[in-house]
Amino acid sequence: MFFETADGTRLAYEDYGRGPAIVFVPSWALNSDMWEYQIPYFTDRGHRCVTLDRRGHGRSERPSTGYDLDTSADDLAALLDHLDLREVTLVGHSIGGAEVARYLSRHGEERIARVAFVSAVLPFLKLTEDNPEGVPEAVLQDTLDDFRTDRPQWFTRQAQAWYATHLKNRVSEALVDWTLRQCMSASPWATAQLLASSFHTDHRDGLRRISVPALVVHGGADFGAPPAVTGRRTAELIPGADYREYPTAGHGLFVTHRDQLNADLLEFVKS
């Protein structure tokens, strides 16, 4: 299914089941297919599950503009308006979590019942004087240079760390290949622009203003978004947030720790 955003971009979304709505926001470079192990679980338990392919990803159109978190947040708002969803649980993974945070800052909580940040790249990635836990700008530039040199090789190098296979998380080569094919299907322009926008966006003030229940889930072995820089700091900023850290999980815990994540999300949604 498709709808049009304010600038005329046609975006793809999927809508399954009936009941209280959960909107799953995919990770950077991935699309709706990443939630393969969550959507059936929640529809079987009486929930409506909606997920969006952001612009430049999956089956959505690839315009030349709009690859910043403000536009991503506005696109998410347009989807909720299009379906007139209310009392929504938002679940965002990685940069999808940053998009959820930006949505709350720009559009408020009127339609939102609760939010879950899974492996989210929050609260602020860039190293600055008032953010000494951040990452130097040179790291971002090196990554962008790698994209321009050999993007497939960059994603291939990340695959094992993504799933923390060194900690004996069972992930088949076929599943790794499935993940890589999703990443490579995304627009190169979109992935580079969105990564830069995420790196430079400061969410700290917005997180402090969240008043709906919030769950923060992070992998203790997340190499790409270390919990000391992201997950733990995010939970400290959100009033009353429930923080859960999986010691053996990497960034791709929606696959490797699907049973634990699904159970924790279900408990949160019912609470």
TrEMBL record:
InterPro entries: AB_hydrolase_1, AB_hydrolase_fold, AB_hydrolase_sf. Residues 20-257 form the AB hydrolase-1 domain. Keywords: Hydrolase. One of its GO terms (cellular component) is membrane. It holds the Pfam family Abhydrolase_1. GO terms for molecular function: hydrolase activity. It comes from the Bacteria. SUPFAM superfamilies: alpha/beta-Hydrolases. This is Alpha/beta hydrolase. It comes from Kitasatospora camelliae.
